Amino acid sequence: MDIASLVGFIGAFAMIGGAMVVGGGLAPFVDTPSVLIVIGGTFFAAMYTTPIGTFLGSFSAMAKAFLPPVMKQNVLIERMVELAGVARKDGMMALEGQEVPDKFFGKGMQLLVDGADETKLVQQLNQEIKSMKGRHEANQNVVKAWIDLAPAMGMIGTLIGLVLMLGNMEDVKSIGPSMAVALLTTMYGAILANVIFGPMLTKLEGYTAYEVTYREMIVLGLRNIARGESPRNIQDQMVSNLPPKMQAKIEAA
After folding, report:
1. Sign, Cα dihedral of 139, 212, 249, 78
2. Residue 26 carries which DSSP code?
3. Does 100 lie in the same domain as 63?
4. Are residues 22 and 80 in the same domain?
5. pLDDT single digits (tens) 121-132
6. What is the model's pLDDT at position 253?
7. List of residues 6+ apart from 68 with CB closer than 8 A
């Protein structure tokens, strides 16, 4: 669980909800037509932007903003150095069946066991990274669609409310509900775009960048094992991708 995502999400809604309660309660801010226009309209318009499989799959990707995959770079480096020592001492075949932190690492190591040279290894693993980035980008484009469309749906709702209000000015009782639709749809659109999906997109893009770096470190390590580099040299090259504090911690260990 990403604590920052959870606390930030709950905290933002707590601040907004608290202001509403202090201002007179939540009831004035709940309007069914506004919900249908903004949330329902944005849902279907976002669906319109992408194939149905990608759209449905994007919701599981959104959950990763709160439940990201656990991939520790320091654990990766330690294991890569251990396997480099095994390969240098006993040959590539000794890597068969060795425990690895994740499937991508395992696929690359299996290529070494099967006799793939450095060029083939790097080419295939880089293609895997490219494909992963494409999948992530497709899911993130759905989130971007929510960000772009929610305010637009809010504006559409505002225009609907204004048309209803101006068309029935003689009916004083209809002015209030029509104005509520006009204002609440704008508010709902702003909340969807800026409180829910905007921060979510930033978090997902950050996780993608982290995973790309993680996988590039795997490619770097395995490529150097294929070259017969020493475990110490492999560690030094991989550690250069980490923040200074983590570098110092690994080097001290």
Report:
1. positive
2. S
3. yes
4. no
5. 999 999 999 999
6. 65
7. 2, 207
Phi, psi of 57 (to 5 degrees): -70, -20
Considering Cα of 44, then 49, then 55, then 60, what sign does the dihedral take? negative
- DSSP code, position 37: I
The whole-angstrom separation of Cα 128 and Cα 130 is 5
How far is Cα 150 from Cα 29, in angstroms, rounded to an integer? 17
- Residue 52 amino acid letter: I
Cα→Cα distances 253→5, 18, 77, 131, 233, Å: 31, 48, 12, 35, 15
Domain of 253?
Answer: 32-253
d(CA 121, CA 138): 26
Instruction: Please list the alpha-helical segments (H only) found in the chain.
Output: 3-23, 32-35, 41-48, 52-63, 73-90, 103-113, 118-167, 172-191, 198-227, 231-239, 244-252
pLDDT at 117: 87
Residue 11 phi, psi (nearest 5)? -65, -40
Q: How many domains are contained in the chain?
A: 2
Residues of the chain with pLDDT under 70: 172, 174, 253
> Which tokens sit at 116?
């793939």
- Does 200 share its domain with 165? yes
- Give me the pLDDT at residue 174, please: 67
Task: Please tell me the predicted confidence (pLDDT) of residue 90.
Answer: 86
pLDDT of residue 196: 95
Residue 172 confidence (pLDDT): 66
243 lies in the same domain as 120: yes
Q: How far is CA 125 from CA 54, 156, 216, in A?
A: 24, 46, 9
